[in-house]
Amino acid sequence: MDSRGNISLEIGIVLIIVLMITGVVLSLSEISTQKIVKESENEHIETLIGQSVNNLINNPGTPQDWEVHEKGIPGLAIVNEENQIIPNSVSYSKLMALSSNYDKYVNKYLFDSKIKTSMELIPYKSSISSVKIGNAEDSNNVHSVNRLVKCDFFKKYVIKDFQNDGKCNRNHDQDSHSCNYFKIFKGNLRTSNYYLLIDDSEKYNLKYFLDTTRLVKEKSWKTLISNRVYLNDEINFYDDTSAVVFIHLDKKDAKAILVSVPKTFDKDKLKYDYFTTNDCEFILKAWY
């Protein structure tokens, strides 16, 4: 082989090596580009769901009772009795409104149908079941944002909380009693059930009785042996269509509440913890 043949062979080998190096570089460049795109997508979705969670738990929505009218801009924050927004909070009724039309309120409105999501509310109290709504997870690449929030479940049904000051028609010493009252009409008993709910720690250590402004005879104290007392049968109207009913407890700041719930209310959820404000973990998961 002459010198020209050797040169041609060397050039061919060099070209092959160059092509191989170029191929490796292009392959690495493609992998790097895909990695950058993937990281950018991940950062985008994490930012998006983080902002969405912060907005949901700090905003009750527009209007504030959007869940009642089933229209408007959704938000989950609780509005208390003084019409104040509780930051970092989740209203159970608003969460259930999201669940009833998740595709409209969440998939389309919040995320423009670009990602799938689910939400979960996990109470720290073991007596309360967690709640999960949204899409079923169908991806291994799931992004998650967690927040510690205040949550209510059925607090809207609470009429009186005996850890707050009330009034008494028996002149009970409020340093050793908890008393409060409410007005009720006969018609209320046809649609609602009234219960006295107490914390488990109060069972056997707390006594109560009911009376009205129309005092007929002296009432005796009854020991609470259950954390739930059905009151409808204990309310006397006499010849009136309404009554002002007083509930007396023989302990200051008793962990007890009076609730009025619909006749169809799930009795398994008639527990003290369900009707108070609790600490919960709120989780939003998202995936493509």
What does this entry look like structurally?
With 288 residues, this protein is an alpha+beta fold. Helices cover 28% and strands 31% of the residues. The protein is built from five helices and 17 strands. The chain has helices at 3-58, 66-69, 92-100, 102-110, 188-191; strands at 61-62, 73-74, 78-79, 85-86, 89-91, 116-123, 131-134, 143-152, 158-161, 178-185, 192-198, 207-212, 222-223, 228-230, 242-249, 256-262, 278-287. The strands form five sheets. It has a five-stranded mixed beta sheet. A four-stranded antiparallel beta sheet has the order 9-16-11-14. Strand 3 and strand 4 (85-86) form a beta hairpin. The protein is elongated and about 125 Å long. Mean pLDDT is 87; it is low at 31-37.
How would you concisely characterize the structure shown here?
This protein is α+β, with helices and mostly antiparallel strands and 288 residues long. The chain has helices at residues 3-58, 66-69, 92-100, 102-110, 188-191, and strands at 61-62, 73-74, 78-79, 85-86, 89-91, 116-123, 131-134, 143-152, 158-161, 178-185, 192-198, 207-212, 222-223, 228-230, 242-249, 256-262, 278-287. The chain has a five-stranded mixed beta sheet. The protein has a four-stranded antiparallel beta sheet with strand order 9-16-11-14.
